[in-house]
Amino acid sequence: MNNQDSKPPITRRSVLMAAAAVSAGTALQSCAPPGDQPIAKQTPKSHDLDFDVIVIGGGFAGVTAARELGVEGKRVLLLEARPRLGGRTFTGNFQGKKVEFGGSAVHWIQPHVFAEMQRYGKGFEEVPLVDLDATNVMLSSGEIKRISPSEFGEAYDSARIAFCAGSKELFPRPYSPFFKPGVLELSNVSAADHMESLGLNELQKATLNAELTLYGGAPPDEFSYTSFLKIYALAAWDYYVFSDSEKRYKISDGGTLGLCQAILDHSGAEVRLGKVVAKVHQDQNAIRVETTDGQTVSAKAAVITVPTKVYDDIDFTPGLSNEKREFIANAEMCDGACLFVRFKQNLGNTFSFCDDPNPFTAIQTEYFDDDFGTIVKVTLGRQSLIDLNDHDAVSAVMKRLFPKAEIEAISSYNWATDPFSRQAWPSYRVGWFSKYKEMAKPEGRLFFAGGATADGWHAYIDGAVESGIRAGREVRQALAEESASTGAS
Length: 489
Known about the structure:
Elements: E1 2-3, E2 51-56, H1 60-70, E3 76-80, E4 91-94, E5 97-100, H2 111-119, E6 124-126, E7 134-138, E8 144-147, H3 149-163, H4 167-170, H5 182-185, H6 191-196, H7 202-216, H8 225-234, H9 239-247, E9 249-251, H10 255-267, E10 270-273, E11 277-282, E12 287-291, E13 296-304, E14 315-317, H11 322-330, E15 337-343, E16 350-354, E17 362-369, E18 373-380, H12 391-401, E19 407-413, H13 436-440, E20 446-448, H14 461-486
Parallel strand pairs: 1-19, 2-3, 2-13, 3-10, 7-16, 11-14, 13-20
Antiparallel strand pairs: 4-5, 6-9, 7-8, 11-12, 12-13, 15-18, 15-19, 16-17, 17-18
Helix pairs in contact: 1-10, 1-14, 2-14, 3-7
């Protein structure tokens, strides 16, 4: 078995080691700054500050905010701590195949990312998630049920339909999630609480519990019931559309990195990679951002797009509001990671769910044929249950699911231990979904984006893009009002 050697652990202060969470077999795809010919013609410097706007974070929220401001002629600087773009998306290579180590699911029902794909000519790539050859369910006890795809589908479909039965009544306007007061009344109900009320059988409960662990990145008794129902409602309250949207399609033509780079190229922003922000100071007239290498840049405004758990690594002066600090400390808990395994044999098109507390939550085939063998993608809702650098431990779990298969290679990315994310996809703890709008509120010259602040598909790329569009609009309006009040041109 070709187990790649793991690289040393990384710290947030060690910029040059920022990508070491990927095992050595994974090809890092670094992103150069955009070309010298931006589409937007930027306004010449008309003040003593270095830029009009500084965007902190080069994921989809950050590049979208930069584009929204750059095309309006604003002078934009984008600072990214990693040596690459993409944030919590990451297009890489494994065994000669393009794979996505982070967020990847896209769909035409997700309006913001679909619009960006159309704008930049990106298509859909379908992963083999239909016409399954084999399905497994690992119960919470560790027992494995090898059942037919039809039996698996019946259990999974019926459980999730029952769980989401009230979505249309609670979320008739999903992008205004608190339109119905009943949503707030249910804010302290966990996904586990609601599931227990449904009277599910063993297989139904196991598949649904695995799905909820996947979305929450935590045990379902910690995960907000209403936050999951809101995402379901965004798929037109339709089970099959939702199923299509969550695991079946990803971006072709360069993957998530290709789309992220296209948006940034359009912005005309100046990009500085490997710049870790240490301090953000705002006063009446300006924002000053200091990086860990001692550089300071100034602007009229800043857009902060870092993941929620990274905020504590930045010294804000004055400090953020109490509401934001409470949200940062308590709201999110996603303990997720991603793993790819190549098998020598062709295992066919397979899908497995593992009920909590098993470490591997969902396993699906990505590539398979007789000559190449099989690559499966494993999504871990709770990476802390296993050491991903211990390939013997990883192999032992995989061999239980696929006992006759020979493992050729393993590669992983641990988002929960990455110092520039500290968590995987956005998810809300019980009682905190109702407070995400506090995280999105501007504070003086500071504006906030990121999937966790989105009204819509907060756990997806679409939510990050949505938030970047909103933050860009807020900055434009604020600067226009300031310019009008001071009589500036």
